Amino acid sequence: MSKVTPFLMFNDQLESAIAFYTSTFPDSRVTTVARTGKDGPIHSAEFVIGGQSFMGYNAGGPYFTFSEGFSLFVECEDQEEVDEYWNKLVKAGATKMQCGWITDQFGLSWQIVPKRFIELIRDKNSAKVKAVMDAMMEMERLDVAALERAYDSVR
């Protein structure tokens, strides 16, 4: 485990969240689980999602909720991978948001971002970067071809 690990508080949904996340993202697994009683529900766990270690606690109740102030950033190789994660999250009950953001059925926010978007906004030409950013602001799920068209529209 790294020195800094995200700690997620769930309201009686930890077991469902772990099952969904580990089945959705490769390089994911449960590393430890602590239950309430021998056969009781999970109250805490350590798990890995996409290679990132997390700790989770299943007693946040209504006092602790997730907000868009914290999100998980998923860098995707291409449009196919963006679509894969986006569609899995939507199918499971996620709420689509603007700019490649999506809030899953547990209330956790994700950014599903193609690597190409990051490359385009690192360009030294600020007009090209602005065109890409303006295009992105009009999208829910990020569209690589549309982002590239916006980039190419500026000479």
Explain what this protein looks like in three dimensions.
The chain is 34% helix and 26% strand. The chain is of the alpha/beta class and 155 residues long. The protein has two domains: 64 residues, Signal recognition particle alu RNA binding heterodimer, srp9/1 (2-Layer Sandwich); 90 residues, 2,3-Dihydroxybiphenyl 1,2-Dioxygenase, domain 1 (Roll), CATH 3.10.180. Strands 1-4-3-2 form a four-stranded mixed β-sheet, covered by helices on one side. Strands 5-8-7-6 form a four-stranded mixed β-sheet. Helix 4 runs antiparallel to helix 5. The protein starts with 6 loop residues before the first strand and ends with a helix.
Topology summary:
Blueprint: E1 7-9, H1 14-24, E2 29-35, E3 42-49, E4 52-57, E5 71-76, H2 79-91, E6 95-96, E7 101-103, E8 109-114, H3 115-121, H4 126-137, H5 144-152
Parallel strand pairs: 1-4, 5-8
Antiparallel strand pairs: 2-3, 3-4, 6-7, 7-8
Helix pairs in contact: 4-5
Described by the principal axes of the CA atoms, the overall outline is elongated
**Count of strand segments:** 8
How do the SSEs run, as a string of H and E?
Answer: EHEEEEHEEEHHH
The appropriate CATH architecture of the largest domain is Roll
Mean pLDDT across the residues is 95
What fold name goes in the CATH topology slot of the largest domain? 2,3-Dihydroxybiphenyl 1,2-Dioxygenase, domain 1
Number of domains: 2
Helix-and-strand structural type: alpha/beta
CA(first)-CA(last) distance: 47 Å
CATH class of the largest domain: Alpha Beta
What spatial order of strands do you see in the largest sheet? Answer: 1-4-3-2
> What is the CATH superfamily of the largest domain?
2,3-Dihydroxybiphenyl 1,2-Dioxygenase, domain 1
**What level of helicity do the residues show?**
25-40%
Note the main sheet. Answer: 4 strands, mixed
Integer-rounded radius of gyration: 18 Å
